[in-house]
Design brief:
Blueprint: H1 3-16, H2 23-30, H3 34-46, E1 51-54, E2 58-61, H4 74-90, H5 93-109, H6 116-119, H7 137-146, E3 148-155, E4 161-173, E5 178-184, E6 189-194, E7 198-207, H8 212-229
Antiparallel strand pairs: 1-2, 3-4, 3-7, 4-5, 5-6
Helix pairs in contact: 2-3, 4-5
Length: 231
């Protein structure tokens, strides 16, 4: 859990508590150490969140405290809604559901005078059909997050097929399909793979033997060099 999310959760735990709650109890709920809770409480108090108490006794959130409203301009709200609409029509089921949840969460916290944007949005996105895929985009995203290699049989533009083992870096969403950016062990270089040209695929238990941030930096450098060559 990211620290910002954890700080929010601590406030919610204190808000729901009927009396003082100890750092041990908070830590158990968030699955973090007591020392981490002490640091987070200190950070919240430094931000003037009205928390009373001390280590070894328990903490109480003063009544009447409210998180500040999400301060977004109308253009920022519409940008967020448009992006979520795009994901909702082009992402797989779990991303589409997350996009709908995101819109609902934003609508719940924006000021009252901005909620009309959600009732009658000024933007929309035309739906598209899902591309044919033997490996779902959800599985690819998990492989990227967990740094797993993917074995696949890939069909080139001429129709010939090759077997590849790739180190997926990111998946790009397009209106008409998806593309995987990856290091290809067969070609010993960075390549792009259209998901609709993948005939067979399997996420392997083998781990990518590189840090993902370094691999992405190398990919960006390679793409920059490629663009300069064709400029």
């Amino acid at each position: 859990m990211r620290r910002g999310d954890r700080l929010f959760e601590i406030i919610e735990i204190l808000r729901r508590a009927s009396g003082p709650i100890s750092a041990d109890s908070i830590g158990a709920k968030l699955e973090v150490t007591k020392r981490t809770v002490y640091r987070d409480i200190a950070a919240l108090m430094a931000q003037r969140v009205p928390i009373r108490g001390e280590a070894g006794v328990g903490y109480v959130l003063d009544p009447g405290f409210h998180m500040p409203p999400l301060m977004l301009t109308a253009d920022e709200i519409e940008a967020a809604v448009l992006g979520a609409q795009w994901v909702g029509t082009r992402g797989e089921a779990d991303l589409a559901q997350a996009a709908a949840s995101l819109i609902a969460k934003i609508a719940a916290v924006v000021p009252d005078d901005a909620r009309g944007i959600f009732v009658e949005p000024a933007t929309s996105v035309a739906p598209v059909g899902s591309p044919p895929e033997v490996l779902s985009a959800a599985d690819i995203r998990v492989a990227i997050r967990q740094r797993h290699k993917i074995a696949l049989t890939y069909q080139g533009s001429t129709g010939s097929q090759t077997r590849r083992t790739i180190w997926p870096i990111l998946i790009g969403y397009r209106d008409a399909g998806r593309i995987i950016a990856a290091w290809c062990e067969l070609r010993h270089g960075f390549r792009y793979f259209r998901t609709d040209r993948i005939a067979r695929a399997q996420v392997l238990p083998d781990m990518i033997p590189r840090r993902m941030d370094l691999l992405r930096s190398e990919w960006r450098a390679a793409m920059d060099a490629e663009r300069k060559r064709h400029a």
